[in-house]
Amino acid sequence: MGLFNYKTSNPAFTSYFWDSGNRSSKKMTVTGILIKSLAMILIIASMTMYVWNLYTEGVDIKWYTYGGMLAAIVCSILISFKHHWAHILTPLYAISKGLFLGGISSWAHARFPDLPYQAVGVTITAFFVMLILYQTRIIIVTKQLRSVIITASVTIFVIYIISWILSFFGIKPIFIWGTSWIAIGFNVIAAIVASFTLLLDFDYIERYKNKAPKYKEWIATWGLLVSLVWLYFEVLRLMKKLAIRF
After folding, report:
1. What is the spatial distance between Cα 237 and Cα 194, in angstroms, rounded to a whole number?
2. Cβ(149)–Cβ(197) under 8 Å?
3. Least confident of 14-23, 45-54, 71-80, 136-145
4. Which of 29, 41, 73, 229 counts the highest number of beta carbons within 10 A?
5. CA separation for the pair 63, 48 (Å, rounded)
6. pLDDT category, 53, cuts 50, 70, 90?
7. By C-alpha distance, which of 117, 237, 116 is closest to 187?
8. 60-73 mean pLDDT
9. DSSP state letters, 36-59
10. pLDDT surpasses 80 at 143
């Protein structure tokens, strides 16, 4: 099977982005992705601290949080269809996610001091662990592994969407939002799946470095951000549940 037939749960690395536009003389490089990723992470961190400071000053940050979440979704959808706009939309995505993370992080910190910092530490650790596992080939990204991760990611995504819709009717599934062992188990699985999507990202970057057009570094950067933000979100939720329970 050809390389372009492989799929990934991260929309930034689907074949849609790699099948066209290969006429550019400049190619995607790991260094370019690293520089862009670090810049976007700094933007996310800056916006997170901005909203956090607003919260400590007594400002209602609800609209910053939900507005950031919705804006990030819109940016992701636009990037999926207009990948040539990624150099503009990816920074906007970073700003939006920073607003969202600022809201949920400040709320978590208010109830459980320093919990967001611990979640950041776990996320960074998980990132490097998955990178080492990939680089040393302790875990090999096979077609079967891709299928498992994709299926698990889509299933979790659908569950969250259904839960979000049910919340409008005053229904909140306890196996997702509660603190029971079932809810904690679900959160653990979601965090593991989120960390494993990084393997797919690493695999696609390795496959297409020095091959894909230069502008697709922005697509790769966006894809990594999606995985990292999801991982942080799951880790923060899991740690909060454990803190409540124990």
Report:
1. 13
2. yes
3. 14-23
4. 229
5. 14
6. very high
7. 237
8. 93
9. HHHHHHHHHHHHHHHHHHHHHTT-
10. yes
Q: How far apart are CA 211 and CA 14, in angstroms?
A: 15
C-alpha angle 65/67/69, rounded to 5°? 70
Q: How far, in Å, CA of 167 to CA of 226, rounded?
A: 24
Residue 159 near residue 176 (C-beta atoms within 8 A): yes
**Encoded tokens for 207:** 């496959």
Alpha-carbon span 15 to 90, nearest angstrom: 19
- pLDDT class for 121, splitting at 50, 70, 90? very high
What number of residues does the chain have?
A: 246
pLDDT digits (tens, 9 = 90+) for 83-98: 899 999 999 999 999 9
Asked whether 195 and 126 are in contact (CB, 8 A), the reply is yes
Closest CA to 227 of 133, 142, 153: 153
DSSP at 213: B
**Tokens describing residue 74:** 């819109």
Angle CA(59)–CA(61)–CA(66) in degrees, nearest 5?
165
- Residue pair 82/218 in contact by the 8 Å Cβ criterion: no
Q: How far apart are CA 142 and CA 137, in angstroms?
A: 11
Q: CA 30, 130, 142 angle in degrees (round to 5)?
A: 85
Q: d(Cα 25, Cα 22) in Å, to the nearest integer?
A: 8
Is the pLDDT confidence value at 16 over 70? no
Q: What is the pTM of this model?
A: 0.86
Angle at which helices 115-135 and 181-208 cross, to 10°: 50
